[in-house]
Specification:
By secondary structure, the chain is mostly helical. It has one domain: Growth Hormone, Chain: A (Up-down Bundle), CATH 1.20.1250.20. A two-stranded antiparallel ribbon has the order 1-2. Strand 1 and strand 2 form a beta hairpin. The longest helix has 32 residues. It is globular, with a radius of gyration of 21 Å. The C terminus is likely disordered.
Amino acid sequence: MSLKTRLVVMNFLQFAVWGAYLTSMSRYLGPAGMGSHIGIFYSVQGIVSIFMPALIGIIADRWVPAQKLLGACHILAAVFILSAGFYGLSSGNEVSFGYFFTLYTLSVAFYMPTLALSNSVAYTILDRAGLDTVKAFPPIRVFGTVGFICSMWLVDILGYQTTAMQFIVSAILGIVLGLYSFTLPNCPVSTDTEDKTLAQRLGLDAFKLFKQRKMALFFIFSMLLGVSLQITNGFANPFIASFEADPQYSNTFGVQHSNILISLSQISEALCILLIPFFLSKYGIKKVILIAMFAWVLRFGLFGFGNPGSGLWLLILSMIVYGVAFDFFNVSGSLFVDKETPHHIRSSAQGMFMLMTNGVGATIGTLGAQWVVNQFTSWQDVVINGHTKSLMVGDWQSVWFIFAGYALLVTILFGVLFKYKHKPEVTGD
């Protein structure tokens, strides 16, 4: 198996683990009596990302080879999410929020650092092979999106969207990836033995990046944009499913297979990621991120106007622009951090990027989104064809327009304040 193929397998499984439950988890939480806690479940991913990616990155930089640490984290995450899944299946509608949430939190505490760590592993392996990461990584990373889509479809087709079986699927994939990670090429820790301060030995020197205006602004706006990242993951599925309460939409494909409809976002992501090298070399990092930010405005706004019937094309268009919104920032941002930071703190810097986006930003975003959603919607038991279903119904249009307004404000501020000048020769284009 070639080097690139081995990294393709890693990326496929990395995101398949997440895709098994990320977009459908909210559909399970509602009927299980935890619908009011959706925001908390998604925000805890952000909370653990505030410290775990940086901590794991420090360990990878200083003490444990990154590929071994990646494997250990995935196995531990799988054990806890497997426990949560079995507990949910055995408890039926009598699920204890505290117990289930604890198991789930422990799982994501070990999974979230792997998002940055897998990037670091890929960059290190490609660098040691003499390959240009800007050109070589995006075609590899696209298979991560393919993996995400495949697990979404699997959960949807098997009818697991509203059951705890989705967590079992995630656990199985996580164990496979954990074992596979130990077979990857070695990513050696730093061999620099010169005298260092305690902060340097702990990897805290990555925080010095905030002394650079361009890096400080980049990380701040990473946080502000990170607010948007988990909103549709948490609430797009309940939003689309809510149309089942309306007889004219109840039997539409989108309502019956909301996960497959949402997966168009990831299909778009898979296609858009291949455009990143061109856009980076043509327009530079600032314009690429501006494009991503405006795409978030469209993502939310089109949700506000769309429906699974005559407005289906608006929902599909929202799914298409998601690829631009997510990839153009996350992948380009990761490449930017990789090129703008010294080698010895690279893993720590990637952890910092994840901290600001999936950590602080996503935490604020999902908790804030839950508050907004609660103001306009509520979980209600709705009788459909003689069967009672728990759906999140209400004024969803106002919800999406509020999110779109926020994204527009961040876009304008970034355009005015971020002054970075892109140099193609620096990124290898």
